[in-house]
Amino acid sequence: MTLTEWLKKEHKRVADMARDMKLSHPVVLRWSNGSRIPTKENMQKIVAYTNGEVQPNDFYEVKA
Predict the structure, then answer these.
(1) What's the whole-model pTM score?
(2) How many CB atoms lie within 10 A of CB 2?
(3) Is residue 14 a contact partner of residue 4, using CB atoms and an 8 Å limit?
(4) Tens digit of pLDDT for each residue in 22-54?
(5) Separation CA 58–CA 20 (nearest Å)
């Protein structure tokens, strides 16, 4: 599940996630729109924040 899909499913805004994770809005926005891939440390925080619904591989557009 992409971060954008998760935010939509949970009825959260990028601003909500940024506030909850104590990060800047532009950083989370770039992750959600795919223009940046989170660092390893932030990737772990995202997995925890989303209860595992968003995984590292979800940031890469690899189609099987």
Answers:
(1) 0.89
(2) 14
(3) no
(4) 999 999 999 999 999 999 999 999 999 999 999
(5) 21
